[in-house]
């Protein structure tokens, strides 16, 4: 095998070109064995392929041209300023007798020999031009003497860092620097730093080789042994401009335009911090070593698939990046030597080009299929490598951003050139590792093969990633490499890249649940215990009406006994359609006391939706008031036993004793939006509600002095938290009217008047309320403000924290689907969170388990986006009358050791933070949340398409979370006022 080493391949291609044949690098890659290459060359000789014409020297009168790559770096320097990210530092330790005069002369000779090193870049009428420093100026050496000093190692490190990070002046030059550090009598450290605009990796090897040859000759009293250079870098720059023109330019431009059409703007890797507005080049590196056995197997795999080790590692790395980003269209940059003309092989200068490899991972290819895809991409890119990267950027025209590099943000460099070593007579040479903390991309993977092993490192931007995160990334790559040599027939999605320790962290350590909380009492029984303790305390307030615990219990008991007399039994559903009032709480309590489960029907909801719920739930009994009866209509009422909650009733006031009732009977069925156009009922048991308060007791310290506000509809599951949070702890529940809830001014007045201490509110509603709070006198009695119902963007809280401290009141963000009983996550919000651009939802409740799973149902790597699954004590019974949907969303928990354990498939996309907290990222289906309401877009589409004028429809959610709205795009018959007609059509149907 030839191996396909691009730099060695360039040298081979250049040697072949001296025979009069233009062998392309891509043809070398297509012929990986000597026999195949021989056949390719034989064909080329028969066809007598055209070799390159020699590069000719241009006039040295005045200014000189820049190459395309130099122009790009110059323009970057004008925009961003000169950056040490483009420094190329080198450090060498010498032990022995160094001839300083010979060393200075050797440096001067090379400085004179290569015009690139004497180039300066000036601005003439807004355009860059090259001016050469005179050869006789020489290259000065800055000398430092550390011999005899204390803490020499620290001083040496400081000097090396200073040199590596010092900026060059592109206009004044020189763009190469040298330092000589005396460490001891016969120990020196040489520092050589070049700017990338005049050098590259190949050039560093040339510099070392020429220094060795010239210094050795000078030490022996001989002259410079190197033959004169035929051309210089400015000659190449002029040739490049002429050569890359006409049909050749059009062909290469068309290739890149087509290849990168509709490419993703960036790779969406999960980061530990938000991307800064200006790209940072501060980096660090995690080392990589692939053992000899695996390296050998990787070579075998490459040979079996007719490709190179570079391609195989590129395929593995792209698969890892796809897994981490969730994208199947991955862009990776890779350097190309770009020394295709034999005349430039011995020139120091900036030749290297950057190629973009676009890897298609769609369709879950096998390892072998992916290798073939990457091989074809790499060969095609090498065939069209002559077009400079900066021109590719101009052709593709990606959105220009200051916070990231264009086209790709991940680099992979296969360092396969034979490392040139400095050989000086009488001196022992040892390279010095420099802590060069510069990285030009988000991630930069640099590998090489040494002594049968693959070694290197993954450099990363410290502005984005933590060291531990990148250590995990390296582990994923090593796991992927190991997996592909074990079985190349498996698909990339089948490969498990998690380490045993990470799996244990995600599945066990972060899911260690507390002992189950006591579940021997139903919800109403907890209330009854409180009645015994504080019978005269006020339980509920509505406008000017008040009711004590004892009074509320007595009224609820009378109604409960009446319900029992109607044959109510455990798990029997009772509908309740009552406006906000004391009677609403009496009715709910009565249903529970009688052993039934309440089905909330908010009378302000669309009547058709309420009728859909009644049709599905099939209750035989309805508790209603005047508004409820009016909303439902006579036809519906005639089929039900209707009890008017506002009609005075006499009866037994003692607590009913429903002997057969347990905590595992239903407490309520709350309906949420459904994709078919029909809502679906979530069946919630008593135990699932009572443990909610035990599970959150460590975060909230509720007591009998707390005053709760019922700020949400009782058809919304947050009301469960509000009602029972007050009545379970002996607190007071304040019920505002609908009018008050719709007025921020009136709502805040009521909060202050009633001394509310616990207040749940959606972030969008709180944003409106903040505007009013900042303009009036503040209420100090609030203890907890709980954000619920929709994603919180912490930045919206900046005006709040401008006038309030972190913990007075404490703001918390709560997350949880109805299917796992109101809340599943908790996060205390601090002022420092306002700088985040994501929605933090915190940690799970201690009696739940949470899993972030990929599309294969496996734990996603830490920090990677996946779908959230929730198990544990809060998982509800399922959907009423929807067994198929229940089995689809409530599935067996494969990670639990509890027999019969289930977990709920939320459809929400989240990711773990390194500390075990969660970030909420949105939905993975057709569902959105607006002002706390979970809405299936499919439900609205299904309803719209029912209109006779509408033929096709799609509904989307637009705007930020605090200003989100639904927009429908329809194909319909042309009529006047269509939008209003459709709104009128939806109004009685949707909530």
From TrEMBL:
CDD domains the record matches: A_NRPS_Cytc1-like, LCL_NRPS-like
Gene3D superfamilies per record: 3.30.300.30, 3.40.50.980, ACP-like (1.10.1200.10), Chloramphenicol acetyltransferase-like domain (3.30.559.10), Luciferase, Domain 3 (2.30.38.10), Nonribosomal peptide synthetase, condensation domain (3.30.559.30)
The keyword Phosphoprotein is annotated on this UniProt entry: yes
GO CC annotation, single: cytosol
MF (Gene Ontology): catalytic activity; phosphopantetheine binding
SUPFAM superfamilies recorded: Acetyl-CoA synthetase-like, ACP-like, CoA-dependent acyltransferases
Transmembrane segments: none
Domain Carrier: 1-45
Highest taxon of the lineage: Eukaryota
InterPro entries for this protein: AA_adenyl_dom, ACP-like_sf, AMP-bd_C, AMP-bd_C_sf, AMP-binding_CS, AMP-dep_synth/lig_dom, CAT-like_dom_sf, Condensation_dom
Any one Gene Ontology BP term: amino acid activation for nonribosomal peptide biosynthetic process
Record-stated family: Belongs to the NRP synthetase family.
UniProt-recorded name of the protein: Carrier domain-containing protein
């Amino acid at each position: 095998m030839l191996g396909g080493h691009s730099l060695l391949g360039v040298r081979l291609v250049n040697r072949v070109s001296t025979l009069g044949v233009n062998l392309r690098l891509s043809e070398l890659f297509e012929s990986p064995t000597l026999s195949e290459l021989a056949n390719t060359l034989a064909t080329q000789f028969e066809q007598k392929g055209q070799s390159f014409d020699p590069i000719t020297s241009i006039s040295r009168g005045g200014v000189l041209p820049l190459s395309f790559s130099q122009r790009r770096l110059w323009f970057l320097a004008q925009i961003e300023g000169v950056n040490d990210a483009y420094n190329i530092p080198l450090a060498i330790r010498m032990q022995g007798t160094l001839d300083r005069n010979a060393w200075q002369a050797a440096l001067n000779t090379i400085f004179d020999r290569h015009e690139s090193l004497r180039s300066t870049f000036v601005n003439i009428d807004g355009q860059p031009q090259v001016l050469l420093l005179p050869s006789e100026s020489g290259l000065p050496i800055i000398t430092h003497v550390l011999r005899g000093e204390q803490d020499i190692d620290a001083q040496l490190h400081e000097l090396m860092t200073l040199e590596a990070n010092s900026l060059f002046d592109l206009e004044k030059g020189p763009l190469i620097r040298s330092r000589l550090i005396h460490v001891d009598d016969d120990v020196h450290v040489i520092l050589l730093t070049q700017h990338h605009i005049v050098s590259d990796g190949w050039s560093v090897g040339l510099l070392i080789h020429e220094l060795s040859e010239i210094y050795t000759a000078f030490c022996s009293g001989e002259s410079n042994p190197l033959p004169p250079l035929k051309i210089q870098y400015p000659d190449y720059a002029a040739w490049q401009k002429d050569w890359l023109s006409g049909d050749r330019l059009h062909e290469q431009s068309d290739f890149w335009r087509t290849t990168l059409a509709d490419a993703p703007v960036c790779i969406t890797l999960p980061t530990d911090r938000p991307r800064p507005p200006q790209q940072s080049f501060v980096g660090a590196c995690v080392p990589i070593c692939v053992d000899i056995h695996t390296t050998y197997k990787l070579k075998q795999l490459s040979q079996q698939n007719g490709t190179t080790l570079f391609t195989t590692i590129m395929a593995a790395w792209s698969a890892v990046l796809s897994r981490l980003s969730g994208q199947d269209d991955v862009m990776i940059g890779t350097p190309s030597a770009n020394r295709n003309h034999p005349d430039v092989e011995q020139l120091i200068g900036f030749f290297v080009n950057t190629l973009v490899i676009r890897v298609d991972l769609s369709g879950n290819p096998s390892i072998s299929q992916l290798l073939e895809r990457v091989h074809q991409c790499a060969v095609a890119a090498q065939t069209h490598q002559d077009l400079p990267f900066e021109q590719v950027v101009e052709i593709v025209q990606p959105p220009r951003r200051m916070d990231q590099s264009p086209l790709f943000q991940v680099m992979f460099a296969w360092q396969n050139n034979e490392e040139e070593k400095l050989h000086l007579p009488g001196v022992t040479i040892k390279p010095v590792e420099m802590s060069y903390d510069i990285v030009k991309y988000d991630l930069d993977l640099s590998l090489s093969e040494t002594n049968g092993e693959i070694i290197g490192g993954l450099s990363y931007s410290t502005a984005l990633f933590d060291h531990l995160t990148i250590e995990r990334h390296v582990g994923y790559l090593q796991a992927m490499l190991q997996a592909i040599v074990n079985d190349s027939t498996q698909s990339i999605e089948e490969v498990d890249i998690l380490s045993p320790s990470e799996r244990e962290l995600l599945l066990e350590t972060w899911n260690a649940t507390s002992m189950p909380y006591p579940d021997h009492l139903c919800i109403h029984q907890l209330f009854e215990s409180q009645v015994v303790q504080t019978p005269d305390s006020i339980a509920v307030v509505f406008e000017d009406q008040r009711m004590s615990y004892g009074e509320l219990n007595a009224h609820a008991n009378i109604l409960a006994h009446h319900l029992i007399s109607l044959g109510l039994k455990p798990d029997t559903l009772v509908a309740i359609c009552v406006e906000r009032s004391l009677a609403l709480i009496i009715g709910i309590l009565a249903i529970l006391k009688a052993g039934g489960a309440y089905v909330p029907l908010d009378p302000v909801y669309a009547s058709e939706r309420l009728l859909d719920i009644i049709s599905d739930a099939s209750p035989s009994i309805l508790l209603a008031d005047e508004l409820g009866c009016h909303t439902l209509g006579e036809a519906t009422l005639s089929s039900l036993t209707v009890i008017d909650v506002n009609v005075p009733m006499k009866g037994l006031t003692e607590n009913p004793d429903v002997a057969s009732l347990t905590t595992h009977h239903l407490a309520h069925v709350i309906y949420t939006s459904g994709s078919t156009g029909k809502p679906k009922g979530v069946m919630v048991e008593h135990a699932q509600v009572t443990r909610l308060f035990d599970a959150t007791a460590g975060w909230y310290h509720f007591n009998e002095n707390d005053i709760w506000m019922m700020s949400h509809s009782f058809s919304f599951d947050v009301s469960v938290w509000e009602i029972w949070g007050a009545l379970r702890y002996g607190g007071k529940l304040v019920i505002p009217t609908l009018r008050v809830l719709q007025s921020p001014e009136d709502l805040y007045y009521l909060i202050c008047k009633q001394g509310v201490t616990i207040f749940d509110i959606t972030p969008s509603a709180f944003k409106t309320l903040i505007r009013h709070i900042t303009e009036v006198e503040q209420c100090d009695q609030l203890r907890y403000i709980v954000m619920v119902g929709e994603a919180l963007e912490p930045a919206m809280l900046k005006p709040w924290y401008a006038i309030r401290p972190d913990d007075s009141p404490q703001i918390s963000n709560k997350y949880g689907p109805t299917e796992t009983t109101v809340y599943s996550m908790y996060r205390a919000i601090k002022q420092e969170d306002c700088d985040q651009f994501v929605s933090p939802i915190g940690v799970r409740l201690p009696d739940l388990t949470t899993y972030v799973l990929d599309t294969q149902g496996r734990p996603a790597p830490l920090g990677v986006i996946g779908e959230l699954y929730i198990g544990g004590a809060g998982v509800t019974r399922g959907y009423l009358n929807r067994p198929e949907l229940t089995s689809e969303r409530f599935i067996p928990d494969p990670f639990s050791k509890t027999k019969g354990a289930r977990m709920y498939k939320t459809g929400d996309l989240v990711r773990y933070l390194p500390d075990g907290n969660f970030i909420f990222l949105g939905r993975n289906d057709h569902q959105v949340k607006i002002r706390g309401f979970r809405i299936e877009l499919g439900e609205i589409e299904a309803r719209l398409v029912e209109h006779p004028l509408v033929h096709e429809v799609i509904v989307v959610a637009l705007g930020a979370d605090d200003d989100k709205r639904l927009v429908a795009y329809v194909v319909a018959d042309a009529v006047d006022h269509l939008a209003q007609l459709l709104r009128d059509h939806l109004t009685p149907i949707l909530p």
